[in-house]
Design brief:
Elements lengths: L1 E5 L4 H10 L6 E6 L12 E4 L5 H11 L3 E4 L6 H6 L1 H25 L6 E7 L21 H14 L4 E7 L2 E2 L10 H10 L4 E4 L3 E2 L2 E2 H14 L3 E4 L6 E2 H12 L6 E4 L19 H7 L6 H16 L1
Parallel strand pairs: 1-2, 1-4, 2-3, 4-5, 5-6, 6-11, 7-10, 8-13
Antiparallel strand pairs: 9-12
Helix pairs in contact: 1-7, 2-4, 4-5, 6-8
């Protein structure tokens, strides 16, 4: 089996490559724009790929003829998407059209070729009036980012190849070289420095460990599962509760965490207040079994210690 990953320099992309590299049963093809930024560069093939270029996508897909494509590449900065709409659309929608089109053409030209396209999507396609949500919830996007992700889903659902959509929520994890923060590290860092932080108490999520999301994608690929799957964490929290769990884990001062309201935070893009996912379908059909949020914090902590050695 050949599995091609787009966005391999990103958080989920890295986790997928590291889980699939050196697996004798498959070939992992990692792709991203520009150079390979992963620390470990053996056990897989790397290709530079600009998914906004149909010609480039056709070249790389034709060369490797992947059995599975896991599309993790996207513009995910919600506020930037609101102000850089053309870039957002190119990254999140045109790129999906390009990949689907390239796979459909290959399938026509190769009668025995049956590609499987796995696309990553988001809880932000919903309006946040209630939660947690199952796979049958009707989308109602509030932001341009959300509109672009929903448009991509519609392209995937209309395509003539086997497809799956993995929707997820508030992904956290550690990337190589610690080049980005996440909700856990943000809370920990500020409280350790004795800084007061304002944390919203009116947004609800099921935070997702990046390793769990990668496992969910791999299960979809292995089972050639089709359709929509909610792949998130299993614990449902307000963002305020989530910050308290982090503080408790590290035995930090919770009095520094001040409750606030979403309306008080001036952000260009609207966020859905209440989401979070029901993951029963993924558990039953895929055998998906994510860590608890506390277990996830410990995994992050172990990774940080390993990097500091």
């Amino acid at each position: 089996m050949k599995i091609l990953i787009t966005g391999s320099n990103g958080l989920l992309g890295q986790k997928l490559v590291y889980k699939l590299r050196n697996n004798k049963a498959l070939t992992c093809i990692a792709t991203a724009r520009g150079g390979n930024r992963l620390v470990k560069q053996d056990g897989y093939v790397y290709e530079t790929l600009d998914i906004t270029s149909l010609k480039n996508v056709e070249e790389v897909f034709s060369k490797h003829q992947p059995d599975v494509v896991i599309n993790t590449a996207a513009m995910t900065n919600v506020d930037a998407c609101e102000t850089e709409k053309e870039t957002c659309w190119a990254m999140n929608v045109t790129s999906v059209h390009n990949q689907v089109k390239a796979l459909e053409e290959l399938k026509i030209n190769e009668p025995f070729y049956k590609p499987h396209f796995i696309h990553l999507s988001t809880d932000f396609i919903f309006d946040g009036t209630h939660g947690p949500l199952d796979e049958n919830e009707v989308p109602n996007p509030l932001s341009y980012y959300a509109e672009s992700k929903l448009a991509a889903e519609e392209i995937v659902m209309a395509c003539s190849i086997d497809w799956a959509i993995a929707r997820t929520v508030l992904v956290y994890g550690i990337v190589d070289n610690m080049s980005r923060s996440n909700i856990v590290l943000w809370v920990k860092s500020n409280l350790e420095q004795g800084k007061t932080i304002n944390v919203v108490d009116d947004q609800f999520r099921t935070p997702t460990l990046a390793e769990d999301l990668a496992d969910g994608c791999i299960l979809i690929a292995q089972k050639r599962a089709k359709g929509i799957y909610n792949i998130s964490g299993k614990d449902y929290y307000s963002i305020l509760e989530l910050a308290h769990v982090v503080a408790d884990y590290y035995k930090l001062d919770k009095s520094l965490i001040k409750p606030s309201k979403s309306a008080d935070i001036k952000q260009p893009a609207k966020r859905p207040p209440i989401t979070g996912f029901i993951i029963d379908k993924a558990k039953k059909e895929l055998g998906y079994n994510p860590h608890s949020f506390t277990e996830g914090i410990k995994i992050l902590e172990d990774q940080i210690k390993e990097m500091e050695k």
